[in-house]
């Protein structure tokens, strides 16, 4: 089958020798097949056109290679339009829960992609709005937490026609993709990544508010104190006291390019490679 891939972008973990070597390898393979490669600045690779993020979004891309750990993959999705598929390579990263392959499989993986032997794996994203500001979309989660370490706010949570008010340090609103992230570290459940739902995980709730798994519906959160709003653990914004924060599904899903179908793929990345019966 002739390749439908004509243009590709590379987003790599900067300053990591393993990730940058893997990126250079992918560029060489793409050039051999007459695919035009771009790389996201400040990354520089021989044969690839270095491009700023704002310019990269204007280029018609067929695929993006994210090379590093999960943080690099999350950054790649913010760097390009939502309908561009991302192929994640764990090279120079840690667990690589989002990754499809490691650096040892680059040659065969790029060959399969160029031969059209892949499929798309869509994942829902969420976005927060407050006071006329639209914050960047989150693939994993949105964390709302107190700024002051000496004052515990009351957080009001409105969802599905009900309202809950609790004194707590903060709350994590997680997608199924992000169920292995911040939410999991504070006791949240691991969900199949393809599910259509959200997880609400309170942080140090005074009345021990339970974790909630809810349909994907709009949520409004309001805190009596100044809050930090953190998107995917990478971007932080301040929200004034009593200002409502509205969270809803983002218009464009994140699209992963995959080679292999797996069930609970993230369990093996978390160290649960076998089930005992």
CATH architecture of the largest domain: 3-Layer(aba) Sandwich
Query: How far apart lie the N and C ends?
Result: 43 Å
For this structure, what is the CATH class of the largest domain?
Alpha Beta
CATH-level-4 superfamily name of the largest domain: Probable inorganic polyphosphate/atp-NAD kinase, domain 1
Indicate the percent of residues in helices: 10-25%
How many separate domains? 2
Average pLDDT rating = 91
Task: Label this structure with key terms.
20 strands, 6-stranded antiparallel β-sheet, 6-stranded parallel β-sheet, 35% strand, 6 helices, 277 residues, alpha+beta, Tumour Suppressor Smad4, elongated, Rossmann fold, 2 domains
Describe the structure.
The chain has 277 residues and is an alpha+beta fold. The chain folds into 2 domains: 7-123 and 253-269, Probable inorganic polyphosphate/atp-NAD kinase, domain 1 (Rossmann fold, 3-Layer(aba) Sandwich), CATH 3.40.50; 126-249, Probable inorganic polyphosphate/atp-NAD kinase, domain 2 (Tumour Suppressor Smad4), CATH 2.60.200.30. The chain is built from 6 helices and 20 strands. The protein has helices at residues 17-32, 53-56, 70-79, 106-114, 182-185, 265-269, and strands spanning 7-12, 36-40, 49-51, 63-68, 86-90, 101-102, 119-123, 126-130, 133-134, 141-146, 154-159, 162-167, 170-174, 198-203, 212-214, 219-223, 227-231, 235-239, 245-249, 254-258. It has a 6-stranded parallel sheet, with helices on both faces. Helix 1 packs parallel to helix 4. The longest helix is centred in the first third of the chain and has 16 residues, at 17-32. The model has no long low-confidence stretch (mean pLDDT 91).
